[in-house]
Amino acid sequence: MKKILVSTALLAGVLSYAGGFRVSLQGVKQLAMAHTSAHAEDASVAFFNPAGMSFIPSKLSIVAGGFGASNKVTFQNLNTLQSTETDNPIGTPLYAAVAYRPIENLSVGFSFTTPFGSTIEWPGDWEGRELVQKLELKSFYFQPMVSVKLAPWVSFGASYIYAKGKVDWDKAVTQFGGELNIKDEKASGSGYGFGFYFRPDPKLDISIAYRSPIDMKAKKGTATFKFPSASIYPLLGLDPSTGQDKFTATLPLVEEYTIGLTYKVTPKWLISADFNYHGWERYSKLTLDFATAPVGNQPDPTVLVSPKNFRNSKTFRLGTQYAFTDMIFGRLGAYYDESPYTDENFIPETPSFNTYVITGGVGFKLKQFGVDIAGGYALPQARDVRNASLGFNGQAKAKAFYFGLGLSYNPF
């Protein structure tokens, strides 16, 4: 019984929904310029800073887009030299936004994004199968917002965030030749965002924004155990016909601070820079409460507490755009994204790396319509994995690339 308690305790690593990373894919135009934020040409600025809506040149703006995200993670045991690679499907983050200015100094809008989530799939028989075999994470942010122009050169904006999330995770329980599935499709939480957008000079845009943490509450999650012998189920207080138990948890998504600048060097050439600060430090532990199964590690055997030991992290971004004509725009960028945990806290459920990313793309403007294409190639830095608490040691490497297509419409 002790062995299954230890094995099951590892499941808490999956339930952050973000897992130590966030998806920087909320605007195709922005991605092409290193996902910088101080751009107020259309409604795509709404997710980054609601105050930017006041500086959109058209009264009504509508945008939508999608991405393909491909990534592979390789883990090598340095003692056996055995190497294992994930077989992840292509992720498809989406976004859409609308902004409308009913009166001169007031703008309202709505943004839909998927800022956290991915799917990772390891071979079913790999050495870390008790930690994870397959993990699917999804999140959806719904943000109504408002922006007020305080003066011709500055605006203030705020948004309410309603978040929905899903987790579907498979792992092995090798001690009994079984499997465990953790699933919840109705986790939810709420938060807010606000920001200031400045244009003190026609050549300079400054964006300062804050997005609050969100506690995703899973109230009716399901844990499904599958064992070859029915005699194991009564040990966990489970019905052998279903092998299921319920759990509840509060799952933290972290806050983010952003400062962005865009400077028009010439009428055709601009340069953008961003600094992001992510408050991952609040994700120090995760508490999971089962209904009946005694698979915890606390005085109450149904309560499981898993230490995470995450730390705050930073991202540095630099991008540029050049207008070849009034209709064709070229874009380039690069950014560096810190991992929020050390090698000693590496987890294969949601692997994270210190990463350099190179981006680029083109944009086409056809009167009120715009079409944007972007791509990015990530260069994650290899990690020497030394997670003693999980008994997980070796070297982890990764590679990833992104591509996206975005549409915009500014009718009037």
From TrEMBL:
The lineage of its organism: Bacteria, Pseudomonadati, Bacteroidota, Flavobacteriia, Flavobacteriales. This is Long-chain fatty acid transport protein. Transmembrane segments: none annotated. It comes from Chryseobacterium lathyri. Keywords: Cell outer membrane, Membrane, Signal, Transmembrane, Transmembrane beta strand. Pfam families: Toluene_X. Belongs to the OmpP1/FadL family. It comes from the Bacteria. It is found in: Cell outer membrane. It is a multi-pass membrane protein. InterPro entries: OMPP1/FadL/TodX. The keyword Endoplasmic reticulum does not apply. Its main location: membrane.
